[in-house]
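Field notebook, page 304. I keep forgetting to write these up properly, so this time I am using the form the group agreed on. The chain and the ligand, NAP, are recorded exactly as supplied. Prediction of the bound pose follows.
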Amino acid sequence: MSDSNDPNHPEADAAQNRPSDAARQTTRPFGNSQRAVAAVGQGTWKIEDRDESAAIDALRKGLDLGLTHIDTAEMYGSGAAERIVGKAIAGRRDEVFLVSKVLPSNASERGTRKACEATLARLGTDHLDCYLLHWRGRYALADTVAGFERLQKEGKILAWGVSNFDVADLDEVTAVAGAAPCCNQVLYHIEERAIEHGVLPWCAAHGTALVAYTPLGQSTAPFDGRTKPSRVLLDIAAAYGATPRQVALRFLLEAPEVFVIPKAANPQHLVENAGAAELVLSSADRQRLAAAFPRGPRRTLPML
Ligand SMILES: NC(=O)c1ccc[n+]([C@@H]2O[C@H](COP(=O)([O-])OP(=O)(O)OC[C@H]3O[C@@H](n4cnc5c(N)ncnc54)[C@H](OP(=O)(O)O)[C@@H]3O)[C@@H](O)[C@H]2O)c1
């Protein structure tokens, strides 16, 4: 491991060596919104697959645990997830940083506004804290941004952002809007670190929050102790009295612009995920993890 302690080692980058005051906070500034938002939030993709009352209870338990950043989308269950979120946050709207997304197929200027109004009705609220373009589609970014800006003027959204945008898309939307998006939501987990090459530095430079979706990855391999990298993760977790998933989430949060939105229906999973916010990894352990789960070469933005 001597190489990874060398400040010239490629993994010893700015994010890893940054003073971790911001990283210690369970809330952090959400991009240029100036809002303090929970670093660990709750995803809602497929929450409608299970019993509705269990899904509502899980979201409320998450709020009790401080997982107050809720991510949803008109796409999820064709509106069913938003309806469940609406029921879960009823009477608790003020606690929540609420994010939803417009489908690219709806993202004309008029379509964006119409989709947002339907989303607000399903969520039972009069505003979103941030509204995202789910991914780039056939409509010109200028049209979507015009829709966002109109919604913002009307107080229906407090900020807007994007999802699944690579560096060139981020440059383009910033040029179109005359300001950087509030956030970019992208695929990011300990086994999928490609965004660290370009997208994360771009977000850091432009005051854009980077929201990591699928932050626990799509496989249990990092957590099963069967491979060498997994054993490193388990070893580090044991040293902190933490779980491997807490360490894996915390690893992503070391850069102060990052937020994670794991989806958990199981209450024990919620408790575990909430615990990741308070963990503080040493620089040596971050470097061990970075070496065990290398970021690999630069490539086009991965997405689900
Ligand atoms: N913008 C986009 O294009 C995009 C794409 C994908 C996802 N997203 C957003 O990101 C959110 C998270 O991504 P995701 O749902 O794909 O994946 P994820 O959060 O990485 O993983 C969810 C899965 O992990 C399980 N899980 C959660 N916490 C756990 C824990 N502590 N221990 C063991 N298992 C645990 C969940 O089980 P239980 O449910 O049984 O607890 C669920 O099966 C989505 O829900 C959605 O809001 C956005």
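OBSERVATIONS:
- The chain has twelve helices and nine strands.
- The two ends are 33 Å apart (CA to CA).
FOLLOW-UP: compare against the apo run.
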